[in-house]
Amino acid sequence: METKRKIISNNKVKKFIVEFVDRFIQDDVIGLSAQLAYFFLLSLFPFLIFLITLIGYLPISQDDLLGLVSRYAPGDTMDLIESNLRQITEKPRGDLLSFGAIATIWSASNGVNAIIRALNRAYDVDEGRSFWLARLMAIFLTAAMVVVILVALLLPVFGKAIGLFFFVHLGISPAFMAIWDFFRIFISFFVMVSVLIILYVFAPSTKLRFNDVWVGAIFATLGWQFVSLAFSYFVLNFGNYSATYGSLGGIIVLLIWFYLSAMVILIGGEINAILKKIRMMP
Predict the structure, then answer these.
(1) pLDDT tens digits for range 199-213
(2) For the CA atoms of 250, 223, 275, 138, what is the dihedral angle to 10 degrees?
(3) Helix intervals (H) in the chain
(4) Mean pLDDT of the chain, nearest integer
């Protein structure tokens, strides 16, 4: 009986590997990653501007947001992002809150809209939603990302105060503070997993549940963090893109980072699609 289970398990692993290689080639993950990198670049500043617009009404500074980005942004890209963002946001806030807010979130949703198309391809489904419904879904997912990122920014700000409240007023043991501080260290991991689960469940034009996407979400989270840190280390120590591209070096590094990030996200989606297909096999 045990031998039979091992054989079935090995067959599933082989099917997964074969299916993954085939889908990676057939779905043109490399080409789609390049497309997504382009849309990510177009969406980056509108997305950050919309975030900063909301941050103006919360006890969070623009530096807090940039600090969150700087944890993973490679090389000189933080200087590029920070200088351009500060230049853009020198406009009066009222401009950003009126038509600008609508325009920025519409532009920011372009990246998510491209992910929707790519994940539909992973699941071999056509977009069954109308143009406006699909676009509203992209805007909804973009807004969900904004909310989750704001929570990630707010928790470190209020995290200590919340911990002290439970510790002092509710008489919880001192060990709670250590556990609470430990939890706050992994905020970025849980935020990324949450964002990707929401993305993987709602983006494709097919019915999916949490159980269908959590594996790909965790893989993409760990993979993205590893790729970002590894690429950042490479850029700082080995890759001198400024020598080759001059003043465009920062943009090239940013595009490569987006390209690698997009590939990890798409691979996570492909993993979910393959696992779902294997589960449906007899």
Answers:
(1) 899 989 888 988 889
(2) -40
(3) 2-26, 29-55, 62-70, 77-88, 93-97, 99-122, 131-169, 175-185, 187-202, 210-237, 241-245, 249-280
(4) 76
Look up tokens 């001059």; give the residue. 246
Residue 106 contacts residue 139 (beta carbons within 8 Å): yes
Per-domain residue ranges of the chain: 19-280
Query: What would the two tokens of residue 136 be?
Result: 């509203």
Cα-Cα end-to-end distance for the chain: 18
Q: What is the DSSP string of 221-245?
A: HHHHHHHHHHHHHHHHHT--HHHHH
Q: Which one-letter DSSP state was computed for residue 206?
A: S
CA angle, corner 201, sides to 39 and 270, nearest 5?
Answer: 65
Q: What is residue 51's DSSP assignment?
A: H
With beta carbons less than 8 A apart as the criterion, state whether 272 and 213 touch.
yes
Q: Is 236 exposed, middle or buried (0-12, 13-18, 19+ CB in 10 A)?
A: exposed
How distant is the alpha carbon of residue 1 from its chain centre? 42
Q: Which residue has the tokens 């893109």?
A: 241
pTM passes above 0.85: no
